[in-house]
User: What shape does this take?
Amino acid sequence: MTYKQIKWMILFIPTITVGLWEYVRHQFLLPYISMDVGNWLTPFIVYVVSVTLLNKLFHMLERIRRELEHERTAKAALEARENLAKELHDGIAQSLFLLSVKIDRLEKNKEQQSQHHDIYNIRKTVHEVNRYVRQAISNLRYDATSVNTLNLNEALDVEVQKIAKEVYVDIDVSWELQDEMLTPKEKIELLACIREAVLNIEKHADASKGWVQGEGDRNNWRVTIKDNGKGFEVDPFQLKDRYGLNIMKERAEEMNWELKLFRDNNLTHIVLTKESK
Assistant: This one.
C-alpha cells in the first residue's frame, strides 16, 4: 500500500463508517435503539474504528515516512561521498601523480646522485600517500548502505573478497578469521597489507593464480598470500624501488606482527602472523 493510498484511507474511513452506521441505524435499528442511545453509539463506533484500523494505518504511514526519510538521507550522503571522491581524484591524486613524475626526472639527473637517499624518502612518502588517497576514493565510492545488510562477522571477509576482485589475476579467498578477532586498527592495517600483496601479484609476479588465506583467533592468527608467479632472485625488501613491500614491512613491525616472504613448492608466500607473547 502506497503512502498516498494510506492517507486517503485515513481520511475516508471515519466518514464511511459514520455514514454506514447512520444508514443501518435509521433503516433497521430505530425500533430497537432510541435516538439518545444511537447518538451515544456513533462516537463510540468511530473511536473503536480509530483505535483499531486507523491506528494500524497511522503506524504504516509513520514507517513509510521513516523509510523515505532514510532513503533521502542515504542518497544525500552518497552524493556527498561521490563529490568528495571526485575532488580527491581531480585534485590530490593527480597532483601526487605529477609530483611522482617530477621525482622520476630528478632521480635520473646525474647531478643529483648525492641526493638519492632524500629522493628515495620523498618517493616513498608520495607512493604511500597516493595509495591512501586512492583507497579513500574507492571507499567513498563504495555504497555504504549495503554494509548495513552484512553480518558483522563477515565484514572483513567481504573486504578481502573485494580486494581479490580488484585485480585481473584469479585469486581464491579462504577466510576463517572472524571480524571480532581484530581491533579496528588491526583490520585497517591488515587490509592494507593484503591489498599491497595482491597488487604485487598482479604487477610483478606474472602469476596466473593467487590465494589469500586467513585463520586463527584473537591472540594467534595467520594470513597467507601466495601466488604461482616467477618469484624473486634477491630479497625484495632490499630493493629500494619496492616501496609497497617496505611500507608493508613497516606496518607489520608497528603492529608487532611477523612478516615472512619466501618461496615454497614453486609458490611465493607472504605470511603475516600474530602470536601472543
Q: What stands out?
A: The helical segments are 3-29, 35-108, 116-141, 155-165, 184-204, 243-254. The chain has two domains: 1-149, 151-277. The domain at 151-277 is CATH 3.30.565.10 (Heat Shock Protein 90). The first helix runs from residue 3 to 29.
